[in-house]
Specification:
With 105 residues, this protein is of the alpha+beta class. The chain has one domain (2-103): 2-Layer Sandwich (Ribosomal Protein S5, domain 2). The protein is built from two helices and six strands, in the order βββββαβα. The chain has helices at 57-71, 88-103, and strands at 2-4, 11-18, 21-29, 36-40, 47-50, 75-82. Helix 1 packs parallel to helix 2.
């Protein structure tokens, strides 16, 4: 597991190998949850599932696309990040932390 940030802005990313494929679970904030899922296969457009009123798919797509491109295999990214009444600044910090995690893939 890798992490980025502190307190309510702390994000974590865990990787599991399933045969030749990989699953990443992303969570963080005050209430980690499942807000979406993304499946990415080499040479294909990602398939995205997003729960209503959730924007977690945006960072999940970054995770899935980056890992798929780097390792040239099927990747699933699932999870969610939640901060109650998140401000624009909170969202900026969360996005920065997520990008930091993606750079570590």
């Amino acid at each position: 597991m890798i992490t980025s940030g502190e307190g309510k802005h702390k994000i974590w990313l865990e990787r599991f190998e399933i045969g030749q494929d990989t699953v990443y679970i992303l969570g963080g904030g005050e209430k980690p949850h499942i807000g979406g899922a993304v499946i990415c296969e080499p040479g294909k457009n990602p398939q995205t599932i997003s729960l209503k009123n959730h924007h977690d798919y945006e960072v999940l797509e970054l995770v899935a696309k980056s890992a798929c491109k780097k390792f040239k295999k099927t990747v699933v990214a699932v999870g969610g990040i939640h901060i109650d009444n998140a401000s624009k600044k909170d969202i900026e910090i969360i996005l920065k932390n997520c990008k930091e995690l993606v750079s570590c893939i």
